[in-house]
Protein: TatD DNase family protein
Amino acid sequence: MNLDDFKYIDSHCHVEDKSLNKCREEVIKRAFDEKVQMVTSGTNLGSCRRAVELKDKYGMYITLGYHPGRVNAEDNAIDKVYRFIQSKEKDILAVGEIGLDFDTKNIERQEIIFKKFIKLAEELNKPVVIHARGMEERSYEILKNDSVSMYHCYSGSLELARELVENGNFISYSTLVCFSDHHKNLVKNLNLENIVVETDSPYLSPIKGEKNEPKNVIKVIESIWELKKDEYSLDEITKIIYNNTKRLYHI
Ligand SMILES: [Zn+2]
Structure:
């Protein structure tokens, strides 16, 4: 399949996640049936390896990174992920997800690891996919405008979102847009410049009790349209976001 066969791109998900071991095949098939391509994101050595396998098997896109929740791993283990990503330069669209998480202790060490992987992205000349839960301002301070970044599941302020976009970065709306007032408010007040969409599957499900999956990225686009139907048709929004995603990842 080539990109022209698709109408949507889930710009950030984890179909390589272990919890999908038993249903991965069907999850991917359901997405492809709905013309949804996806970018799956490695977060540790095992998940990075599985992501590369999925790329080879299904032709999906990948980014590889190291999740800030894994701050307590030994240097040695982190170096292994680093070298693995370095060796997959040709396979990846971006380095990520990497970043900071307010809920995880040891912010100082999180920052050291974050900076290490930012350097790697610079070395490989790739954009970065940022996890910045509750740490949006600090993440931006560290990144400055060194690399083009995509803020996955952006949940920060409207002001910062505007500044990020003005400086060429991308904001990703997740399935949280389907039910969260804060996220709906961001959609209402930002234009569609540099906006992409994601599910973060299997997390952030829009349906209680169900695992999230990439085909739900269509629900994200529909939720955006609900809030912007005075300005755009559903088709226009779909196309703009699709093209933004291609621009972000150079595909
Ligand atoms: Zn994620």
Q: What stands out?
A: The chain has one domain: 8-249.
